[in-house]
Amino acid sequence: MVLVWGVVIFAAVMRAFTGFGFALAAVPVFSQIMAPSEAVVLSASLTLAVSLLTRKTYWGESSLKPMIPMLLLALLGTLLGARLLMGLSPAQFQLWIGLAVVAASLVLSLYRPAQGARLPGGVWRAVAGAASGLLNGAFAIPGPPVVVYAVAAEPEPRRARALLMTFFLFSAVMALASYALAGLVTPQAPLLFALAFPAMYLGDKLGYYLFTRYGSRFYRRVAVAVLLAVGVTTTVRALLQLGAWNG
Questions:
Q1: Which domain of life is it from (predicted)?
Q2: Quick check: 245 pLDDT over 60?
Q3: Residue 200's pLDDT band (boundaries 50, 70, 90)?
Q4: Nearest CA among 184, 99, 196 for reference residue 137
Q5: Dihedral sign (CA 27, 148, 146, 47)
Q6: Which contacts (CB < 8 Å, 24+ apart) does range 180-184 have?
């Protein structure tokens, strides 16, 4: 639990500072110390709880209407992704997480929103929503497609953060419902949540404080650098495990 607390605090700071990054940072580490199903349920439940408790810090700063098609497609993707989760080994689970994180980090490092730019149109929203749902159901990591969609076109950190947090609130609901239907929510899940949530709340408070002071200058660089490090580490560990098993 000491390791879980440290990971949760770090990932919660990332989420509160940038609007994304909790699952990307936490699930790869969770998957090293618990079953994949427990890792994704814990991540989704922590995200949902803190999103509801802190909604006044982001709710209403981004329009909900453009998200509706994204959320509907994300729901379909989440249901499919939850089925895929049951067919993955722990090493495969970690490998796909690591590759998704690395890809998202590289894309975010190459694209920067221009001043006055508008969010992409309906086709890009649909693609982002469906891909996000698939990753959400399989790995509890809805972030990469929607993060790229938001930060590639939104120059204002506060609006980009609000869009992401609003989307991830609904994504967490979809993920938990899908896991429950798939029978992945075990009796141990509430205990893990209760033990980890104080760390989540503490990290959120610290991250929001840092965002209000430094977010406009550093939020993008910090997020990309940390997520890239997490993705590379997770991918290398998974490849080593797969190589050892094949050997």
A1: Bacteria
A2: no
A3: very high
A4: 184
A5: positive
A6: 181/79, 181/82, 182/82, 182/83, 182/85, 182/86, 184/37, 184/40, 184/41, 184/82, 184/85, 184/86
